[in-house]
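ugh ok so i messed up the first submission bc i forgot one of the chains. this is the corrected input, ALL of the components this time, i swear. 722 residues overall. if the numbers dont match what u have on ur side tell me asap before i send this to the collaborators (the ones from the other lab, u know who)
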Amino acid sequence: MNIILAKQILKHQFGFDSFRMNQQQAIETVLQEKDCVVLMPTGGGKSLCYQIPALMLDGLAVVISPLISLMKDQVDALKSNGVNAAFLNSTQSAAQQGEVFRAIAGNKLKLLYVAPERLMQTGDQFIDYLKQLNVSLFAIDEAHCISSWGHDFRPEYMHLAKLKVHFPNTPVIALTATADKLVRQDIMEKLELNNPALFISSFNRPNIFYSVEAKRNSYSQLLNYLSKHRNDSGIIYCLSRNSVENLAEDLKQDGFNALPYHAGLERTIREKHQELFLKDEAKIIVATIAFGMGIDKSNVRFVVHMDLPKNIESYYQETGRAGRDGLQSEAVLFFSWGDVIKMKKFAEVENNETQTKIMLKKLNQMGEFGDLKTCRRKYLLNYFSEETKDICGSCDNCNTKYERFDATIIAQKALSAVKRLEQRWGTNYVIDFLRGSKSEKIRGEHKEIKTYGVGADISKDNWFDYIKDLIAQGYLKQTDGQYPVLTLTEKSEAVLRGVEKVELIKVKIKEEKKASLVSEEVQDYFRDLFSNLKSIRKYIAANENLAAFIIFSDATLIEMSSYLPLSLDEMKKISGVSDTKAEKYGNAFLKEIKGYCEINQLESRIHLKVQKRERKSRPKKNSKGNDTYSISLNMFKSGTSIAEIAESRGLAKSTIETHLVRFIESGEIKLEQIVPSEKIEPIKKAIRKLKPGFSTAPVKEFLGDDYSYGEIRAVMVSMSKE
Ligand code: ADP
Ligand code: ZN
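and heres the new structure output, hopefully the right one now
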């Protein structure tokens, strides 16, 4: 019975169809007023495990959470779904706090978020206050902070042991996204939980593609990566505040919309940068690890580590901030063993040898991960005591085929360069020498040597791989110490004399990446509609001063752009559309979808969502695919008018206009070519006056029949380009 009600709440209050992982079991346990520990990866959905019981039980649920920024987002998200929640923390004025206390006194709140230090404030004052209330449950977020075996021990969490003493009969649910066996044990013992149930979900994040690149010239490696992800939102982690600021500045100079974030920045600046990032107004945030805990931005498409994280837990947690919406995302680490050495001084825990040892071991495991030749996902999952198959198919190592080829001549070039340079130079210098670098760093006399420049046809990156391979096969050696140089070995001579053949690993062959969590049907969505819906979301978010993803996640908008709901009832079938949100925002999005369907002569495809489970084949994309756009473009370019194209293709004029609008965006057509010049200014005026976001309907309504949707859309597109 209980669980039926829980499912109704899941659907109507939160907009989801089914529980994920162990959500249902955890909810049932709390409803039976028993304690439990929930381990679920970031983005798995831990919050619902206590939020749904909080709504079902009498009284007030108290959520203990270590970070203030987390609280505000969680509370905003709850409110957007019509749940009464609030938080108490030091950022609030006395008046704001007073308001919260009044709401509690008036039994208006279902959830209250507080920091652990608050709970233990001035003796047991706050505890005594809670005792007079009817506390339905305690939820302890980031519960691993209680364990000194963990990577993020927080002494203030130790006080939480008192909870069970003061509230022996109130259920406690402890939640974390990172805990190996020792930490789990610690959570149960330190919190003095009463025979707790333990729910462990898989830590696998199937939609994250893990890859590691050898760290060489990491800035140009990064630029190369970012240039392929221009429209994506991402986090770039650096070790120091200095490098954060420099990198953010450099990226800005190179035309990327990047902002810095670290604890040394003024609070107002920090908060502003975080907010711009959350609202999608800045695509990239460059940050120290001070950024992130509690950042619940669902459409982070990549997380890049410029420097090595301290341990696997941190790496997993930081990369876990990518792809919380279930869409394909990437984690990229720039790795060198030099970083492992550099990080050692940070592993030191003052006056605590045991703790230092634990940290050093964890650092070494991070190094192991960087150097791994086998599946990265497997390593991560095994680290968290989870078994898995050997090949995931969605990490760099699983997607790389190594092929060997006869590279005797390449090897001879490399070895003779090392020999001619008298075995006194490092890899970088040898490669620059081989490639005939004009740089002043190359000594004048070296430029006279015959070998200088013989390897100019091979890229620097490939040379690095080849030399690494030659070292691995024992044809070259690298000395230890701070400035390692390349030297010959006993195996070198035979190669130089041409009596031994050498095979090297050929440039890697990357295979297609694995699909994301979003079902195949949904991948077949209308991208231009999606981008319009995102604009509407941005507009609403700015108006309500909320982060964009709190309105709807990308995954939700993608579903809308795929299933094309045309009524509020259909809208509610989309995952992530709760009753409250449908009521509040549904119409704004519906209008856009309706307009889009009208222009493109599409119908709702919501029935595909309902039948999803039974169907095997992908739905055929409506006949209006990419090709049809190009046909219209080509006809138009060859001088055929819109009316003539429509006539000869048997399509509506408005349809042809939509086709062509796409090419205004790309710059292939000028606005004046499809909108009569006397109409442009009135349309612009109307847009400025109505501020319709990206919805054409209100403008059309305003201007009347003399103006077509296509003309309005064309002007909008060109205005947004300006
Ligand atoms: P965690 O705290 O475990 O990192 P959250 O509780 O913040 O994760 O949830 C992550 C995202 O998943 C949120 O956007 C949430 O709305 C969504 N979510 C949670 N449970 C479900 C579910 N059963 N079905 C679909 N989406 C869900
Ligand atoms: Zn793998």
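quick check: Confidence is low (pLDDT under 50) at residues 511-521, 611-626. that seems consistent at least. The radius of gyration is 30 Å.
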